[in-house]
Amino acid sequence: MFDALMIDADRDVLPVELAVVIPTFNEIDNVEELLGRLERVLQGVAFEVIFVDDDSPDGTAARLQALSRRFPRVRCLRRIGRRGLSSACVEGMLASGAPYLAVMDADLQHDESLLPSMLGVLCDEPVDIVVGSRFVEGGAVGDWQSSRQSISAVATRLSQRVLGLTLADPMSGFFMIRREAFEAAVYRLSSIGFKILVDLLASSPTPLRVRELPYVFRNRVAGESKLDNRVAWDYLMLLADKTIGRFISPRFVSFAAIGASGVLVHLAVLRLVLGLGGDFVSAQSSAVMVAMVGNFLLNNALTYRDQRLRGWSMLLGLIKFMAACGLGAVANIGVASYVHGDSGGWLVSGLAGIIIGTFWNYLATAYLVWLRPKRA
Predict the structure, then answer these.
(1) CA-CA distance, 177 to 164, in Å (whole number)?
(2) Residue 168 to residue 227: CA distance in whole angstroms
(3) In the sheet that 129-133 helps form, which strands lie side by side, from edge to edge?
(4) Segment 279-325, tens digit of pLDDT
(5) Which tens digits make up the pLDDT trace of 299-311?
(6) C-beta atoms surrounding 81 within 10 Å
(7) In terms of Cα–Cα distance, which of 269, 320, 312, 273 is closest to 296?
(8) Which of 75, 84, 93 is CA-nearest to residue 129?
(9) C-alpha distances in Å from residue 231, one per residue of 85, 227, 302
(10) CA-CA distance, 100 to 46, in Å (whole number)?
(11) What is d(CA 48, CA 74) in angstroms, rounded to the nearest whole number?
């Protein structure tokens, strides 16, 4: 009875064939232009556009909500307290029942006119995913600076080698995938950082059948690029998760790597203060404080980017971090002394103390500093 009524009410409405998922953050000046372009190139296609906005402070979500009232095919998912392009794309794709799912950026750098060709390949050929590629014949990166081209080339080779990919442009953020291929991979996705395509390809339980179609990467029209050092760090953590994530958390890898860098900071400050005429106790105390503060700031910005502390919470977090790491130092010394006293060599004893101290610091700070209380 209900189905019959729904069919009668929507007699002239075609089932959605394609969902275009677009993550946004501070893209208020681009979304309306992009929507107009999609309307032009996808004429004759039953499609919907799902914008996933990470609570942009520039009012992007409000603009999208206004557009959704004018255009029924437009939806806006507004995420509060969460950030990340990959996770936004996953939520957008899960919010649609369309058999074909496209992902593209909101900055107008991806060539929307390629979408009909992508859809045609998926409809007519035994292909699971179609990638808009800048690095096959006919594709190009536009006027990228040589430094950006070099970084992209290194990242591409790294993903190809580490993950065993043969794709020319695994770093592309512009692709279309069959729903069944996405659903098969979704439970294994890491959803870390910006490179959702690499994540999908590495998470699929069976190798995906891929076609690459060339396009020319365009210049950003409005807004600012989201590329920064944290994006690179997230990419490395994604690769770590896909290679050793079954055995060890990428968060721990990040925490340990930052801790190792803190040793270098400690030694540099120690040498500096001693060189300025300070006594050893003062130099050591300064080095410990600077290294701890630096480790906290880096972990807050990188390891726990999705749970980042701000304002007074950040100050309280720093105090808790230093207290927890202080106990970690005691554990380090205690374990190292015990192993050394039990006929262990200095190297084995030192490493044992470092391992226990690092695990303690990671577990204690994860619980005391960055653990979010559960909502009632």
Answers:
(1) 20
(2) 21
(3) 74-78, 47-53, 18-24, 100-103, 175-178, 129-133, 210-214
(4) 776 777 777 788 888 889 988 888 887 788 888 888 898 889 888 88
(5) 888 888 778 888 8
(6) 9
(7) 320
(8) 93
(9) 10, 6, 9
(10) 11
(11) 6
- Two tokens at 5? 């009524």
pLDDT at position 350 is 62
Do 35 and 51 touch, CB atoms closer than 8 A? no
Query: Residue 118 half-sphere exposure, CB side, CA atoms within 13 Å?
Result: 32
**Domain chopping of the chain, boundaries:** 2-244, 250-368
Helix (H) or strand (E) holding 70: helix 60-70
Tokens of 179: 């729903």
Out of 3.90.550.10, 3.30.70.360, 3.40.630.30, 2.40.30.10, the CATH code matching 2-244 is: 3.90.550.10
Looking at residues 43-70, what average pLDDT do you find? 92
pTM here? Answer: 0.72
- Measured N-to-C along each axis, helices 229-244 and 250-275 cross at an angle, to the nearest 10 degrees, of 130
Q: The tokens of 169 are what?
A: 């442009």
d(CA 105, CA 112): 10
Is residue 344 exposed (0-12), middle (13-18) or buried (19+ Cβ within 10 Å)? Answer: middle
Closest CA to 157 of 146, 147, 169, 148: 169
